[in-house]
Write a structure and sequence with these properties.
heterodimer; A: 324 residues; mainly alpha; two-stranded antiparallel sheet; 13 helices; 71% helix; B: 292 residues; ABC transporter involved in vitamin B12 uptake, BtuC; two-stranded antiparallel ribbon; 11 helices; 4% strand
Chain lengths: 324, 292
Amino acid sequence: MATWKRARGFLVSVILAFAFFAVVEWLIVSGMLNIFYVNTLFFMAINVILAVSLHLIIGITGQFSIGHAGFFAVGAYASAIMTMKLQLPFAVGILAAGMAAMMAGLIIGVPSLRLKGDYLAIATLGFGEIVRIALLNIDYVGGASGMTVTHMTTWPWVFACLLVTIIVIANFTNSTHGRACISIREDEIAADAMGINTTYYKVAAFAIGSFFAGIAGALYAHHFYIIQPSNFGFLKSFDILIFVVLGGLGSLSGAVIAAILLTIVSTFLQNYPETRMIIYSLVLILVMLYRPTGLMGKKELTSLFKWRKATQGGMNHGSKNTVA
Amino acid sequence: MELIQQLVNGISLGSIYALIALGYTMVYGIVRLINFAHGDVFMIGSFVGFYAVTMLGVGFFPALLLAMAACAVLGVVIERIAYKPLRNATRIAVLITAIGVSLLIEYVMIYLRGAQPEAYPSTLLPERNLELFGVVISGQSLFILGTSLVLMVLLQFIVHRTKIGKAMRAVSHDAEAARLMGINVDNTISATFAIGSALAGAAGVIFGIYYTKIDPLMGILPGLKAFVAAVLGGIGIIPGAMVGGLLLGVIESLVSGFGYSLWRDGVAFVILILILIFRPAGLFGKNVREKV
């Protein structure tokens, strides 16, 4: 009975998500949604993917990574190389982006996940900077002037990637492996003592998180016509970090909501970049001082208001079964 | 000869890193906090020095002292407002606050005066060069090195010979026990921030003279590299920060000297990751096992 209930919940949310998809697709095709809103929507979706992928690493597994823009960059450049240099289709580009970012995640994760807390944070920050500096110095990908990329990102692609990301991460969180990751977040030594292979799970979470960051990179690269190393500096990493922290460390729907809200805010403040950063940093400090659990704490949207599920739009439905 | 030239450059650069790294290491030693805003305190120091020279028309030493004083105050203010309420919070919360403070200082500075760079007046220090066995050493480099060394000796004196230094060592060893012994822990922490920030302010002025160009985001990279230097020497250990800073400066100069100047910024982070993997406690640190 319980299984049926969960399966039904899952089905309903997927159907609702598809309904949302169809409505937006119709709005775009019929030209009712002007290009500015479409851009904002795509950017929002990319940010949600990034936020959710980092949520798996920080919120669920408790590994403090502040080099997420590095994986994002690896994905963006890998997909751009596939489609622009090798003339392969976009789907291959997306997959290659995910794979390349995952490889990068494994390369950096295997040695550095032995580190804890602050040290891991600094190591990942260093990794992000190394990626940026490497891209700056490789002529094949255009150096500082970057690469021009054809526009290929369309709403069906964005939606598919978003849906897959949320479903995979929500279900991962709910699985045995996800529980193992949560136990590492709560107390690594205790988890170790309980027989959980902590290194394995940390690396796995890191690799999955990087995979989806890479996919977000592919979408980003094929949406903005040009990618430059300066787009992937550590301010970008902080942006993603802010989504996760503000949403509540450990809450998937929190990360999603924060990503959506902050994308809207930064779109409005686009012409005042300094004001935007001042507001961002003040919010960050104030949230940490007065509400360190973030918007949602460790709760999910669904566990807060059961009855409001249906009114939340397509974005959150993948997370419906998660009570992390 | 080229090599020795690079070494001299490296040592000058390294002494700047060392000065910043000292602040990182002292703060980490006492409150276990990576003070991300430290690089921005360094930037503020540089600007205070700049304005002191251009607007008040003072010389090098008054500008240096003014920058140090301003940064000491700034460091204490940051500590009192942002970090003190979080003494018992999780490590991640404190780290994120530090990142927030860093961004806040940078962008308030940009908001107030714009992002354009300023050129440091070059007449502050005598432009005389010293020729030694065919190697030309600029007077500036020597001056920078001398100033940093004096500051480091002064720091050693404060930490090892004064009452506040003794309190700092006690708090970093065991804050609870220190409190029981009647040490005012909060004041000691503030003093640590003040001293560390003053050193960063001095480094800012020296950096301005050495590189002649300053801008509101200049603190990010030297800040991160100085942190690498602190980790290299063993974070929390004062002589470690000095050695780590000098070593990092020399390595960077050698890398640029061998023609890889574009990769220079990457080297510091490669060193960081290598040191974290192979010797996380740093060159001078002892490996401490975690107890449950």
